[in-house]
Amino acid sequence: MPVEPALLWEAPFKEIFCRARAVGPGEYEQKVFWRCLHRHALPFAYLLLRFDPDFFREDFYLIQEVGGVRDPKLFTQELNYFHGRNRRERGWLRGSFAIRISAKRLIRLKNRVFRQEALRKERESDKKPRSD
Predict the structure, then answer these.
(1) Phi, psi (5° rounding) for residue 49?
(2) Residue 99 contacts residue 38 (beta carbons within 8 Å)
(3) I need a surface site. Which of 31, 69, 70, 91 has the fewest CB within 10 A?
(4) Helix (H, G, I), strand (E, B) or coil at 128
């Protein structure tokens, strides 16, 4: 079922994130990963990325997938798929200790990024001369 254009974001999430956070597209995945990682997982993540970078394959896959999304429903679907994959993969590090990104943190990041984008647009429109 096609999505109505009015319900789509004006650009993919990655583009809006990079604009709001003033980062280049090449930095997107790393920035989102470290912002969305469970806080208690930070010290372990440094070690795991160094010795077993494939451990976070699902996390980076999700970040890549949502990066190209313009449909808010599809964004939520991707998070649900991620949740399902984590439930099936019952490894003690990802499951019991939640050494992975947090879908809730990703949702909060998305919401902050869109608020920043809305404020940026508002400031830009205030700077434009009005023709009354």
Answers:
(1) -65, -35
(2) yes
(3) 91
(4) coil
pLDDT in tens, 81-108: 998 887 777 677 887 788 999 999 999 9
**CB count in 10 Å sphere of residue 65:** 17
Pseudo-torsion of CA 110, 113, 118, 123, nearest 10°? 180
- Full-model pTM: 0.86
Q: Is 49 exposed, middle or buried (0-12, 13-18, 19+ CB in 10 A)?
A: middle
Q: Tell me the three-class secondary structure of 60-92, residue by residue.
A: HHHHHHHHCCCCHHHHHHHHHHHHHHHHHCCCH
Query: Nearest Cα to 103, choosing from 115, 119, 87?
Result: 87
Q: What is the pLDDT of residues 20-31, one digit of tens each?
A: 999 999 999 999
Domain ranges of the chain: 10-122
Structure tokens at 108: 């909060």
